[in-house]
Specification:
0% of the residues lie in helices and 58% in strands. By secondary structure, it is mainly β.
């Protein structure tokens, strides 16, 4: 039995790494990172096509986005892009 692949897109924001709760050892203003806005996620539809091939569809909000692919609650892959 296999678990379903989950695809979700989030708006992306650039912020200080020190301000992100999961990042440790960085001073304020030291460097910036790109982070997803987790409370504004959009679910995408995932269809199995063939072995290791999936079709992902859905409405992408405009602007900087992070797509996260996960399975069994674990992140498999993350992509950062800009939707126009």
């Amino acid at each position: 039995m296999t678990s379903p692949l989950i695809a979700k897109t989030y708006p992306a924001v650039v912020a200080s790494i020190a301000s992100h709760k999961d990042c440790k050892g960085f001073g304020a203003g030291e460097t910036n990172g790109v982070f997803p806005v987790k409370d504004k996620g959009t679910d995408l539809k995932v269809e199995y096509v063939a072995e290791n091939l999936f079709k992902i569809t859905g409405d992408l909000p405009k602007g900087k986005q992070i797509i996260q692919l996960s399975q069994d609650g674990k992140t498999l892959q993350t992509y950062y892009f800009e939707a126009k």
